[in-house]
Amino acid sequence: MSARIRLPSGLVTFMFTDIEGSTRLAQMLGPGYRPVLAEHRRLLRDTLAATDGTELLTEGDSFFVAFDHAAAALDACLSAQRALASAEWPSPDSAPRVRMGLHTGHAEPLAGEYASAEVHRAARIAAAAHGGQVLCSGATARYAAPLPDGATLLDLGLHRLRGFDDRERLFQLVAPGLERQFPRPRTAEAVPHNLPIQVSSFIGRQEERVELGRLVGEHRLVTVVGAGGAGKTRLAVELTSGVVEAYPDGVWFVDIATVTDPGLVAFAIAAVLGLRPEPGRPMADTLVEYAASRRMLILLDTCDAQPAASAEVVSRLLTGGSGVRVMATSREPLGLPGEVVWRIPPLSVQPGPGGAPSDAIALLLDRTAAARGGRRAGMAEAADLQRVVTRLDGLPLAIELAAARLRVLSASQLAERLDDVLGALDAGQDDPQPLPARGQRWIANQHDTVDLAAAALGSAPTPAARAAQRTATQRHVTMQATVTWSYRTLGPRAARLLRWLAVFSGPVDLATVEWLLADDALDPLSVLVDKSMLQAEPTASGTTYRMLDPIRAYAARRLVDAGEEQAARDRHVAWSLNALQRAYLGPDERPVTLSLYALDPLADELRAALRWTTTGGSARCGLKLAGGLDQWWRERGLAREGRLWLFRLYGRIAETRERVPDAELALAYHMHSTHAGADGEFAEELRFSKRAEAAARRAGDDGLLARVLAGRASSLIDMKQLVEAEQVCREVIDWAHRREVSGEALFAVYSLAELLWHQGRLDEAAELLGAARPVEAVRPIERARRSVDMLLGMVALARGDLVAAHDHLVVALRSRMSHGFHGRACDTVSAIAVRCAAGGDPVTAARLFGSAAQIRAAMRRTPGMFGAYWQAEQANVRAMLGDSAFDAAYAEGTELSLAEAAAVALAVEHPDLAAGSIRFSGADAPARRRRGTRRDDRRTGHRNESAP
Hints:
Strand content: 5-15%
Strand order of the largest sheet: 2-3-1-4-7-9-8
Oligomer: single chain
Radius of gyration: 41 Å
Largest sheet: 7 strands, mixed
Shape: elongated
CATH class of the domain at 10-174: Alpha Beta
CATH topology of the domain at 10-174: Alpha-Beta Plaits
CATH architecture of the domain at 10-174: 2-Layer Sandwich
Number of helices: 41
Helix content: 55-70%
């Protein structure tokens, strides 16, 4: 440099420039690089000459320039970048991308050069820039007024420059003709990461964090898979934010949801890492080379937006170097070797240790308090809040949306509206709203990253791409948007299967899926599981497939839109009828002893099928469904629900004028009559009994008429018309015997035996029941109730024969509990309470009375003819114990479940084994005790395997 050149002094603005990727550009162009470099120098010098910049040093592709004024320096950079952009280069790839950095500070030249830290700061700012970008320090920004026309300075925040301890606020020059989108500045951050800052607290998932953290520590690729809104991103960010210090080269978050083209996945990752494309080199190569020697964790979010491209880039990163680990979130696995697929479970809806709120409840309480301005939900809402989280299957996004609804609804109002999950949660969300857990600034940064990737390919984002970006960032605003995000990736067969599975209310097995489609469903089923639209749940009998309720609601809407609802729901009704039939038959297709436990798992499916038969399907099929649950309704304390379904079916028949045979109507009316009696509606019971008789007579079926007339006695007994009831019983029994349908009149035998017991005609009752035992034994639908043994036990109690009473009642209780006849088991518990009182154990009697009364009330079950007897015996026990002791034992009994009460009843010692029994006294008592035990087993029909 000539000594005659005047160097600025005092407040000096220093500019450094160089060509980004100059080495790669020189290798690519070979001899053609020299003219490019020369043209680059000419353009910069022409600009400097026009702005009074003093060129201090030119070396290779670098310039070092000093300015008297910051504004002149910024003007020079703007003019230079515009000149470089508008120049004609041999090819687009050969255009030099020049980065520029400015800093202003006090400096004095000495011997034609500057020896000042301000020069080094300017050099570091230039090194932080990217090709085409102009960065300046806060000092330059302060002294740069006035800015060139149309120019502004974009605040990029505080950054730590290499070699400097403090943080420098950097600004980017923004003006027409300059690029705007760039990766983060290349600065030395103390904690290298870009994880999104959460604006709400993280709730629960302690066990999941531990398990997932262990997997990330042991494996290089872990994919967190789950349905939309399951909380994958939130958990992944929470976990990775705690391990930043373990990765010296950073933890980097990349949202693939905003990537609109498969070719941009590598560019999006590179942009987050601060990399720019190198001339003539694939971006993936640059990315792999950069990551190969570094130890970093890359969190790729929403890989299902570009699954194939994401898998390809991840594979290259993992094989390119051993220090890179990848944690991905997706609705489906990437399918790469070595990939550990971890499926995120829903939030637990079960209470935590010590009765602490479940994770789902804790999240709902936290978000509800926020929605209500800090007011927490009260204890009065606890039960309804539990209903809400259970109905939402613990899905975090659904819970967040539910909390927003609780701003305007009470918990009970929201719970009542969740039959329409999407309508309840998405109400008021027609206009896009910000995501609840991510800030607007971060969303904008994601758009900038995608714009940068598009620009790197030499194209601007199209309107369609922009729309796709908006869709991606708004995909969690509503449940419908969340599920649509996955649904649009399904093929025709998988989409159809998802729609048709919406008709099921609970888990299904593979055989059911195949039956539904009448086709090989394994392939579409696998797709739905892989994409987290179905949850695969291993069980002891095989894998079942469950759809979360919000997804089911969405699929049901799609089913209607596709015009397939009628066919799919009719198919489901047919499946339900078939499932009911199988519950009554054994493997050999022959009737087996009815167990109501076989119907419990079907209840929700049958309700869903019934709902369709009352609104859009066949009411005749609905009557068959209700008939298959005939005893189940009453034995589960649901007689009222059974009546309501029947009323709806009658309305459907009147609406559609569907033809229903008289025999089937007679069965429905008879069932309705029995439900009404169990529910205490005795006038309705008699009215439908008469309707059943009329329909049975029209049908001309003797067995059906005998069954209906046998039930008439129950109606008369409930209405205290005991003389008329006895007459009906005897007439029906005789008539059925003459018609050789005695089995169908069995209920009349039970009713007559009750009447005889009530009159004290115990021998006649015992003889009648003894004759009925073989008839009951051959009827699979009735024999598990052991009504004969129950009534013989009552006869024995009235006689004071505790041995016979114990034997009969234990047999009845065991059978009833073993086969799920809970209502009748409750009656037997009351009878055993009487046996305990008579046997000198009033405390156990009081406990059993308390339990039976509590369970009977919960089941809304009337005590029947024996109700007055139970009350009288209970009063006797109170007199034996005294009020205080009785009340304590009775209250203890009310805390027992039916299973616990039955266990207490069955543990009551046999009278023959009681201390002081005359049967087991004397020297040969042990031998007689063994013989007596074997004889008692034969009497009750049970085999004692331990007896010799």
